[in-house]
Amino acid sequence: MNKHILAFSSLAFASALAFSSAPAFAQNAAMMQARSACQADVKALCPNVSPGGGRIMECLKSQGDKVSSGCRAALTSAAHAQPH
Questions:
Q1: Dist CA 50 CA 7 (whole Å)
Q2: Where along the chain do its domains lie?
Q3: CB 30 within 8 A of CB 81
Q4: With bands split at pLDDT 50, 70 and 90, how would you rate the model's confidence at 84?
Q5: What is the Cα–Cα distance from 34 to 72, expressed in whole angstroms?
Q6: For the whole model, what pTM was predicted?
Q7: What is the distance between the alpha carbons of residues 79 and 84, in angstroms, rounded to a whole number?
Q8: I need a labelling partner for 24 at 20 to 30 A (CA). Which of 16, 34, 72, 77 fits?
């Protein structure tokens, strides 16, 4: 009987871990997509901005209509993937 309880507990833990990490995976995937989609924009519009602390995001925001539509769409998707 103890083997069954241990097996069930392990399965329950693994399931909970898998479901709890799904939003984090979506968030990371959206951020990776945004980085890829915005790479040319960052090089062209923010060449002297050091990464970290949100500086690149602020630079892209300050560039307004100069940011490509693909980058803008990827950033919007990444923002929606963030936990609220």
A1: 49
A2: 23-81
A3: yes
A4: low
A5: 8
A6: 0.66
A7: 10
A8: 72
